[in-house]
User: What shape does this take?
Amino acid sequence: MQIKTVTTTPFDDQNPGTSGLRKKVALFARPHYAENFIQAVFNAVGPMQGKLLVLGGDGRYYNREIIQLVLKMAVAQNVGKILLGQSGILSTPATSHIIRKYQAYGGFILSASHNCGGVDGDFGIKYNMDNGGPAPEKVTQAIFTESKKLTAYHIAVMDDVNIDRQGRSQCGETIIEVIDSVRDYADMMEDLFDFAVLRRFCAQGFAAGVKNGAAAKANGAGKGEAAGGFRFCFDAMNAVTGPYAHEIFEHRLGLPKGTVIRGTPLPDFGKIHPDPNRIYAADLCRAVMAPDGPDFGAASDGDGDRNLIIGKGMFVAPSDSLAILAANATLVKAYKTGLRGIARSMPTGMAADRVAARLGLPLFETPTGWKFFGNLLDSGAVTFCGEESFGTGSSHVREKDGIWAVLMWLNIMAATGKTVKQLVEEHWALYGRNYYTRYDYEGVESNAADKIMADLRAGLAAYEGQEMDGWEIVKADDFAYHDPVDKSVSRHQGIRFLLAKAGDNAKGEKGQKSGREAVKGDKDANYAARFVFRLSGTGTQGATLRLYLEYYEADYDRQNRDVQEVLAPLARLADKISGLQARLQRNRPSMIV
Ligand code: VG1
Ligand code: CO
Assistant: This one.
């Protein structure tokens, strides 16, 4: 096997962001660009001689080309063996699982996740470690450092590998094994969940194990051949979860064909934005809300790690989803002995804090991005993790997991006989409701966004203790995370303002009572409201400034108000403090999630 060493000059912009390196396809396609980054990874995490690597991607445009490139460069590193998803397809959670199951040294995931695909879209490369999780900050920094001083990369001179047929081949010292993209992952789901119970529920719907008479009504509108059965629509958004969803929901759980829509991964995702939220999955949301539509809807993103959950008459906010899954976890086979703890990213709504407090579990608040959950999961400190950006997961892998979240909801519905709406409203009644939304200002000028953040940071101390618009700013800080396991510190992870109602002496630890239950021991969750400013680390054009807004409502009679209306006064205060809209010359966010 001939190995070619190619002289190269470094690029200065290969700093992995929240979740890997993401750029426009056109930038990735520049000569040596992808090669340089892949070599930087090998230099930072190697040597790889004799090691096992996992490789796959979300099927987006350029996936197949970069798969061939990684194969040839891995052969040049004398990697022992590569497990490659058939046709280059592996979802992010499936990759995480395969790394763990076969005790691989690490893996490459070719994806820009929820970003658009196609020739004009985005591409991305993520590297995951032997625990199955995203490379932690110290590794991504080492990759960046390598990328800036590279002088050469190494590549095997060989034909393209047939990636569409399962089986083994040998190139140099490396065995390349093309594997079924779905089987290992689907088998793991059968280990975690009781599929016999789920199958029965799918066949009979709410009429099955009804413990509570009210639940049966929810399915009254069922029609056609699925009448009486559970009516579910899963939107794979033309992205990677299609094959997984067909196998798990339709084949293994016996739901009717057609349950999965947009179930074939397309290189351009059919020109849609593969981000499962109410805006990009609007058709699904409309269908579920229609009186004769399905009982339950769900969607996932480009690489299969996000989830959207919607029941008839109830969209589930991701922060609530984490809390509700945690509160009901013991109904599920894999978690029946309970959870070790819960972690959420700092901007994520604080509903889970109240569940943790009530169950006597530790609650960890991390920076945005799944890589920060790795140490907590590895050390056994937590079992469930979640982010406001439609991400939930557990210790079964080291990534968020869209299909897992859907199965959790199915399982909880099956075990309780309750609809999504009932589960959510009962949760609020017990714990109180955390009204939550996110405003995104996309494609703004980077310098202007940086300046807003810098000015906020500089002014923080002055805000503490001030009263504005009927609020007292109890705490204003620049979030820094002290990892309790490896003691690393990550600074500048978002600027947060924690508020109490002005004139209300009860604040901080002595704060509002929570729903019908008192919260024991939690601190930040006791503030009446909160807003957070943060810059995105996944965009590929200009900057995206995110404003996260949250308001806690303990009063049962006030829990059914319009989310945007409830949070609008807080948004105005956040704008007054930051001067955001005027400084960005925008009169509204590009997107409200
Ligand atoms: C966003 C989300 C974050 C998530 C990340 C990767 O990051 O806010 O919660 O972990 O995307 O998700 P940012 O830096 O743009 O806010 V995925 O599904 O795109 O890998
Ligand atoms: Co994703």
About this structure: DSSP finds 18 helices and 27 strands in the chain. The longest helix spans residues 446-463. Residues 92, 113-114, 301-303, 305-306 surround cobalt (II) ion (ligand 2) (CB under 6 Å). The first strand starts at residue 2 and ends at 7.
